From TrEMBL:
Protein family: Belongs to the class-I aminoacyl-tRNA synthetase family. Glutamate--tRNA ligase type 1 subfamily.
Protein name as it appears in the record: Glutamate--tRNA ligase, mitochondrial
GO terms, molecular function: ATP binding; glutamate-tRNA ligase activity; tRNA binding; zinc ion binding
Biased composition (Basic and acidic residues): 607-616
CDD domains, alphabetized: GluRS_core
Cited NCBIfam families: gltX_bact
Annotated spans, Disordered: 602-631
Lineage, top ranks: Eukaryota, Fungi, Dikarya, Ascomycota, Pezizomycotina
Leading EC class: ligase
EC number assigned by the record: 6.1.1.17
């Protein structure tokens, strides 16, 4: 059994076998002092995430929750959500709902724990074994501290009768005077134990008469402890050389367990809950590390075996400053709603903050992390670089597009909704040519996934796909650009090849000879490639250079013609997405702007017939149309 013969209060009737096994194994490891594998427990871990609804989830807390979740999953254990809502004054009304939504959004579904819709949902799972359902709950509920006050009170009173705690009747005025006196003579704050000698029966009587009191833990020395991340750590003495000081100047921590309103402090509540809920591993932020020796003292007073503690380091910016609202340690909705970050990218990013792995790639899904997670967590502050987040975002966007499925559908739907908000329906209709917006966006996402960061940036980069009026800047040939820059640098080494605009226009228009049935990126790619070597095939250096110059110039011209020079998918893909009619319209418009001709192929451009003689000859007599030529 995990605990010794001390059993002050009734525990839940049923404790699952796994929990029992986990606890006794963890306790055995500690008791026998065996050198444990620090990186991963050998038995299933029961971990918990215990947020206070005084704020929303931010990057640091999502990472703490993630590490707890992963430790439980990696070891086949359970992850519990407990709401620590004892600070009524600072509670934000929608915080609990928001943090549950955020946890679910990133995929950290708890096995047991609170659910915000029904206060008594925990009872749903009371008789179930293992994970609770349908909306969580579980055998150790309630999982919301404000519903457990009576439990904390009975545990605190039990410590009173066993002499490990005492009632303190000191008034706030006395405590204030004590604090001021201590501060004047340069001593740390603390309590002088004035009430420690009040006999239990006398204290009980005073309490019964309605005198205000708090319950304090009597503690002389705080133990060291073995942190899963930091190793042996902790402070030793809470009392200081009492004999050398006047009575008033003696200092004891003697932390308050029960406040004067009968409510528990965080310390009592979290220790009692972790014990009652059979938590084997507590993963939390380093801000709680200084409280841990006190918590262990409390476990000792109860005669309970403490869980293992692992404290995860602080997140700091590149200047070593704690992340704050100014440098993006804002709640998760900022990443989701304003930055458009995918949940998989955020989870991946959070996992890499202070944790290292030996995989080849940093791009990892939650299910991968569950397989490989361990406690190889860096000591010391973790510097957060948001460049990594954007790298992961791009990688996950590409994965979503390549994998397809529900995640891709969701992405397409969101982009489509944003498009409909930004462009009027009738304008979109003229571009869609009978296709649904969903189909159109799917094509566009597939073609330009490599550059996807978020919806806003994606639409801004690809906005020419949603409007017929391109407002192209005047066309500037790349060769003219080169010529002018080489003239500036008086370089004579680059013999520039000037490709006449009329040639470019003809080549571009010839690409439109493809009938609707063959209008695919692949056909366009082949056709453009077939221009290579169109000038001459003698293999002479100049000819190759001419080919390259022609190809480069043609791409440049096509991009200008089809998307006003904006970056985006490749030219073949752009032509496929725009479709035949819109591509031809744009190319003809471009020809009109550069070569002054507006009518040439439009006669057949808008029907689906295959041209009778689609091949074209260059001056040197080579076939240009590659795959278009009859086979
Ligand atoms: N309620 C505490 C918080 O929100 C949790 C501390 C703990 O994990 O023990 O920070």
């Amino acid at each position: 059994m995990r605990r010794n013969n001390y059993r002050p209060l009734a525990r839940p009737l049923w404790i699952c076998y796994q929990c029992r096994a986990a606890h006794s194994a963890a306790a055995n490891d500690l008791r026998t002092g065996q050198k444990r594998n620090r990186l991963i427990p050998k038995t299933p871990a029961r971990t918990r995430f215990a947020p206070s609804p005084t704020g929303y989830l931010h990057l640091g807390s999502i990472r703490t929750a993630l590490f707890s979740f992963l430790l439980a999953k990696r070891t086949g254990g359970q992850f519990i959500l407990r709401i620590e809502d004892t600070d009524k004054k600072r509670t934000i009304p929608d915080a609990e709902r928001r943090l549950q939504d955020d946890l679910r959004w990133v995929g950290l579904q708890w096995n047991e724990g609170e659910y915000y819709i029904g206060l008594d949902v925990w009872q749903l799972g009371r008789n179930t074994k293992g994970s609770a359902g349908p909306d969580r709950g579980g055998p150790y509920g309630p999982y919301r501290q404000s519903q457990r006050t009576a439990i904390y009170q009975s545990y605190a009173h039990d410590l009173l009768t066993r002499g490990h705690s005492y009632r303190c009747f000191c008034t706030p005025e006395r405590l204030d005077m004590l604090a001021r006196h201590r501060s004047q003579i340069g001593l740390p704050a603390g309590y002088d134990r004035k009430c420690i000698d009040i006999r239990l029966d006398e204290a009980q009587e005073r309490a019964a008469k309605g005198e205000t009191y708090v319950v304090r833990l009597m503690v002389d020395d705080y133990p060291k402890f073995d942190d899963l991340v930091y190793g042996k750590t902790g402070q030793i003495a809470s009392s200081i050389t009492k004999n050398k000081l006047d009575f008033m100047d003696r200092v004891y921590d003697d932390p308050i367990l029960l406040k004067s309103d009968g409510c528990p402090t965080y310390h009592l509540a979290s220790v009692v809950d972790d014990y009652m809920m059979n938590i084997t591993h507590v993963i939390r932020g380093t801000e709680w590390m200084s409280s841990t020796p006190m918590h262990i003292s409390l476990y000792n007073a109860f005669n309970w075996t403490p869980p293992r503690f692992g404290h995860v380091p602080l997140l700091v910016d590149e200047n070593g400053q704690k992340l704050s609202k100014r440098n993006a340690d804002i709640d998760i909705s900022f990443f989701r709603d304003q930055q458009g970050i995918l949940p998989s990218a955020l989870v991946n990013f959070a996992a890499l903050l202070g944790w290292s792995h030996s995989q080849k790639s940093d791009v990892l899904l939650l299910q991968d992390l569950q397989q490989i997670f361990n406690l190889k967590i860096t000591k010391g502050n973790t510097v957060v670089s948001f460049e990594k987040l954007w790298f992961l975002q791009k990688a996950h966007a590409q994965r979503v597009v390549v994998t397809g499925g529900a995640e891709f559908k969701n992405m397409v739907t969101k982009v489509s909704e944003a498009v409909e908000r930004q462009w009027p329906r009738n304008q979109l209709e003229s571009i869609l040519h009978g296709r649904t917006l969903f189909e159109y966006i799917s094509l566009l996402l597939r073609a330009d996934a490599k550059s996807y960061t978020n919806i806003e940036a994606f639409l801004s980069r690809n906005n020419t796909f949603f409007t017929a009026s391109l407002n192209r800047p005047p066309y500037v040939a790349t060769s003219s650009k080169k010529l002018s820059s080489s003239a500036e640098t008086s370089s004579s080494s680059v013999a520039e090849i000037h490709v006449p605009l009329s040639t470019l226009c003809t080549a571009a228009i010839a690409l439109c000879l493809v009938p609707e049935s063959h209008w695919t990126a692949e056909t366009h790619r082949l056709n453009i490639a077939s221009y290579n070597g169109a000038v001459d095939k003698s293999g002479a250096k100049e000819d190759l250079a001419a080919d390259r110059a022609f190809e480069r110039e043609l791409y440049h011209f096509l991009r200008w013609a089809l998307s006003a020079g904006a970056p985006g998918p490749g030219i073949p893909e752009t032509m496929e997405i725009l479709g035949r009619a819109e591509s031809i319209r744009r190319l003809e418009e471009a020809r009109g702007l550069t070569c002054g001709m507006t009518k040439s192929i439009s006669g057949f451009a808008h029907n689906n017939e295959r041209p009778k003689d689609p091949s074209r000859k260059t001056n040197s007599g080579h076939t240009w149309m590659g795959s278009l030529a009859p086979r």
